[in-house]
Design brief:
Number of helices: 15
Strand order of the largest sheet: 1-2-3
Distance between the termini: 16 Å
Helix content: 55-70%
Length: about 400
Amino acid sequence: MNDELIGLMAAFVAALSFGSYSVPMKGEAATRVDVDPLVFQSYKAFAVFLTSAILIYCNNILAEEENVNYHNWATFHKWSVSDFTPWAFLSAILWVPGGTAGVYAVRRAGLAISVGIWSCVIVIVSFVWGVLIFGEKQKSGALGAVKAVSVLCIGLCGIAYFSSSESEKKKMKNSLEEEVIDETTPMMSGDDNVSLDLESFPHCGQPPHSHQTLHLHLPLLISKKTIHVPKYHLGLFFAFLNGLLAATIMIPLHYAPPHSTQGIGYSMSFGVAAMIVVLFAWLLRWIICAVQCRSVKDGYQSLPSFYFKDMLRPGMLAGLLYSIGNLSGIVSIQKLGNFMGYSLNQSSMIVSGLWGIIYYKEIPGFKNIVGFILSSVIVFVGILLMGRDHQA
């Protein structure tokens, strides 16, 4: 089996996994407790670490058997602590805040539009890294790559338009329900002034509170004004931010020592680094809350709940799917290059789009659904144009 075929198969698995791991973020349990984005990201990080540890354990067993039996049909590289690469910390530092932003985007803007935005951003940024930085060649030169990126942008505009379009009935309902809440106001208040939108649960359609507006109070030293930001628009921005950071996650893989990236070695380093970065993220959040509350104890008590009973299974499932996509993505990048490998992985937007349309019913109206599907096809055509122009 040649490297290109292996890379394409890995990219397919990555696309399927990456297109599905966001589904539990908007599931019944996550909606019921209105899970905090960093909480969900923590479950994902633990699942990535656990999955990588299990795979490394199996890999080391096979490596030992191979050394004893002198198998020639496979090559397994035994991983040890000395193979850990600090470059994984850079990947984790990008992944943890990016993934947290992605959870917020799915929860507030919707699955289909969020994955569509960050997938296209990943492809475009991967083009910059692959072609302009790493010098990966294109058969038709830079002009051909620019044309492919242009097709992607056209498709992205269509996805954004048809995903944000609402039926007249939905618009009328949202106009009646629209309310303004303060960022410092708990999502579940004691007087029941704010409640989750659980209509046709679990197929909620619009994400909970997506029609509401945040009051962002600027520090007095900067301004006394209050910025009003619709949660839907903030979700779109966080989807863009997630794509920007996610496109750079695998760049350190190019700089890591060869012995640390053989087989699934880099995934183990990434899993360990992700857990450490998550712990530091919680420590930083605790410090910020303690400063705001002027008490270490009150700051700790103000941290969001992990809802172990409700969120353990969906959180671990999301992390498992991400791990599969991450491992497959590493293989596809190593076999096809950063530009083609990571770009093909982003056909996951079609998978997530189907989840959003069929399961969560995020896009109302036949016209909008057809428009979204056609726009997704245009994006995929752009991805295929990139793959066709790729030179090994």
